[in-house]
Amino acid sequence: MKHLLSIFIILTLSFQGYSQKKSKKKTVSKTKTTTIQQAPMAAISVEEEKITPDTLQIKKGKKYVFLVDVDKYSTTVAYDSANEYFSEESELKRNFSKENLEIIKINKYTYIFFENKQTLDITGDGQAFQAFAYWSGKIDDKVQVKEGTRMATEFVAEQLKSKKESSYVVNTKKYKKEVASLLGKNKITSKSKEVMKALLSGYSLPFSDIEADNIPVFQQGTAKLKTLDSYFLKKKGVRIPLKSVSFNNEGFPTAITYYDDEGKNRSKKEFIYKDGMLTKIIKEDQTAAAINYDDNKMIVTENVGDADETKVFWIENGQLLQKSYTLMADDKFSYMNTFVEEKFENNCISYYINNVVWTHNCGSANNKFPFIHTYTSYQDKEVLQFRKSKIEKKNDTTFEKYYSEAERADQNDNYKLWGTFHLDDFNLVDSFNFTKDNEAKTIKVDYTCYE
């Protein structure tokens, strides 16, 4: 993240400061507003600035908001915080649609000359500036400046004597109330246990990146597992471990070890139960996720550094769905809060982040083959990626996975074989052969079971 230098407003009576040589030791960025008494540009040393500043003339009669994000690497085309300011710009337009604000983004060293004889000096020898500025467009009103890249709505609302708030501030209040209503409850019913089983079945899969389009194959087994060990099977029988799981006599995982690409221990999880219900998940660093239930909901809470994360799971149309709240401990970072939600829509699971759709996962019935699955991801409401696959059952112990060459939903399918699943006598996946990066790979799974 870019280092933010402090910004101060300095009011002067002349432009003499521009002609003074700038110290090489100066490290604090200063946005200066001045009264013009002489032509300032003659005093600017281009060699000293290294970048020729822009000039901008601002006429009276309009309300102006400036979103400033400048450093020595900035250009006139793009800047590091473009996405941030796109969000802030949207917030301003949404909250002040009737104010007819003119929003100007400044991303290069610039002198801004106002018709009321003030100047906003956004220049400096390699300095960085991140701030908001506002001018009412009235000759008698001064330009107001505030450091920061967030909460532009609150800054403008203060100038307009309005009570508008940024959507992320409003949402934070809403999300905190929703989370508070979930915590502290522990109403355990038969529905609670069904949700718990559905969640634990995901942890019990042989490797951690099994996608939704492969799940039906892994739901064939009925044996009560005691241990599970998966690994890449290399030449000459060399094994590179992927994941190890231990189960209790009820078939629920009690410990999981994950391994990295080199087969080294990457992380661990321990599952704690009370009266047959999962109550806690402990990580290798001894941080824990606490679990409580509210009838058909399972609530998992965890501290994730500078934020608290609350996940809610439930079953809908036979599918495990979730929503999660990630809330920063310090409200001044409320713009970083995230709300994620899955919805069952048109026989698909839609995945939303901050109420914007990111993906659609659509599949046919899990117990019927061929199993057809489509995955679509979005960016700015446009399709970013489309992927279609199918799994065919060749016989009781062999399933084949195919990917379509279609890159859009309206294109014809031309399926290519990608991998083959082999099941053992207990209908558990014994091995998975596939091709990735033009290389044939084999994942092998070993099990022990309770009698």
TrEMBL record:
Name under which the protein is recorded: Intein N-terminal splicing region
